[in-house]
Amino acid sequence: MAVILTENTFNKVLIAISNNLLRYESVAGTMTELAASDADIDTTDQLVAFEAYQKVLVINGTNLKIADFINTRIDVGTGNELTDPPARGDVLTQDTSDAAMIVDHVNSTNRYIYGYTTTATVFNTTNTVSSNNGTATMNGATFTPDVVSEASTTPLWYDYETYPDIVLSIAKYHQTIGATKTFGSLPAKAYLGCLYRGRVVLSGNPNYPHQWYMSRQADIWDYAYLASDAQSPVAGNNTDAGEVGDIVTALVPYKDDYLIFGCSSTLWVMRGDPAAGGSLDEVDLTVGMFGANSWCKISISGEFKNATGIDHCRFIALKIIYGCAGVSSSSACSACNEIAYRLLKYDLRF
Questions:
Q1: Residue 298 confidence (pLDDT)
Q2: What values do phi and psi take at 254, rounded to 5?
Q3: Exposed (0-12), middle (13-18) or buried (19+): which is 182, by Cβ within 10 Å?
Q4: What's phi and psi for 113, nearest 5 deg?
Q5: Is the model more confident about 307 or about 173?
Q6: Which of 82, 127, 136, 241 gives 110 a disulfide partner, CB atoms 3.0 to 4.6 angstroms apart?
Q7: What are the structural domain ranges in the chain?
Q8: Contact at 8 Å (CB) between 117 and 72?
Q9: In this model, does residue 10 exceed pLDDT 90?
Q10: Cα distance between residue 307 and residue 229, in whole Å
C-alpha cells in the first residue's frame, strides 16, 4: 500500500498589545488591529498573554480573553440558542455542502460554536447542521447558521470561559448516559497565566493570592476539579502538591519539565504533573520575584560579577534567571539591567 506524506507547515504570528487593543501580524511585517479587542482589555492594569493550541490567551484581571487563529465560528443567531450544546470533540456536518467541523468550544449562552473545519468546503448560512452526538446529545437536533466567521480571514476574539453543561450520549467522566456533565468555573480574577504540560495555569487572584488553578490537560475549557483521573483539572487547594505559602507574583514554565512559582519573597518549583504524582517544593525562602516579568530565559553559561560582587540574579536549572537579591525592589530592574554586572550561578539543589 502506498503511503502519501503531506508536508505540514506552520506560521508564527507576532502579537502586540497596547492602548487597550490587540494587534497581530496579518502578513509578514504588517501589524493589523483586531477591532473586536478594542477596549475589551485594560492595558493600564497588569496583563499577560501566552500561546495555547493556536490561540492567544490574554489574562487581565476580570478580562480573560482569547484571540483564536485556527477555528471557525458558527453563530446560530439570537433567539436560536441551543438548549443543549454538542460536546468538545463531537463532529458537526452540514447537509448538501458536506462541510464538517470538530467542535472545540461553545460559549456560555450556547449561541456561538467554535471548531476546526476539516473539509475544503466551508459552512454556509443556507443548509442545516447536525451533530454526530459522539459524546453529548445536541438539542435542537439541527440548526441553520446565521453567521459563519473564519479565523483564517480575521482572528476570532471572545471570552475565555469554561465549557457549558452537556447531556452525555455515552457513559463518560464517571457518569452515565443522559447525565449532565459540568465543567467548573474560572477564578473571578486572574493576573498571571501560562501553558504548562498542556494545561492552562492561572494565578494572581487578588482574593486568593497564594492559589493556582490548572485546566484539564489538553482541554483548556474544563475546570471541574472533582474529576480524579491523571489529566484532571487541579487547583492548589485540592491536590497533594498544595498551595504555595506566599503571594504568587510570576509563573515561569520550563518546557514540560517544571513550573516555577515566583512569589513575593520565596520561590517554589512544581516538578511533573500535580494530578499524576507531581510535587511542589521550595527553591529559595529568601529571594522572590518582583513581578510577572522579573525573569528571562538565556542560552549562556558562566559567571558575571559587578564591581562590588553583589549577587543580583541566580540560575534555576540551567536557563532561567530570577529574582534580585541584595537590592531593594525599587532598584531591582536597574540593578539587573546590564548582564555584565550580573552574577549568575547554578542552584545546586536541582
A1: 63
A2: -120, 100
A3: middle
A4: -115, 130
A5: 173
A6: 82
A7: 15-68, 71-182, 192-284, 295-341
A8: yes
A9: no
A10: 53
Query: Which residues neighbour 6 within 8 Å (Cβ) at sequence distance 6 or greater?
Result: none
Q: Is-contact 165 180, C-beta < 8 A?
A: yes
Contact 72, 150 (CB under 8 A): yes
Instruction: Record the cell numbers describing residue 168, joined without a space.
Output: 452525555
45-to-15, 19, 20, 48, 169 alpha-carbon distances in Å: 18, 11, 10, 10, 43
pLDDT tops 50 at residue 304: no
**pLDDT of amino acid 335:** 40
Place of cell 484532571: 232
What is the rounded CA–CA span in Å between residue 2 and residue 4? 6
| DSSP code per residue over 75-135 | E--TT---SBPPPTT-EEEETTT--EEEEEEE-TTS-EEEEEE-SSSPP-SSS-EEE--SS
Distance CA 224, CA 306 (A): 49
* 100, 54 contact by CB (below 8 A): no
Q: How much is the average pLDDT of 130-158?
A: 98
For 198-212, write each residue's pLDDT tens digit.
Answer: 999 999 999 999 999
Cβ count within 10 A of residue 151: 20
Instruction: Output 300 or 81, whichever has higher pLDDT.
Output: 81
In this predicted structure, what is the pLDDT of residue 327? 40
Read out DSSP for 147-167?
Answer: EEEETTTS-EEEE--PPPPEE
pTM of structure? 0.86
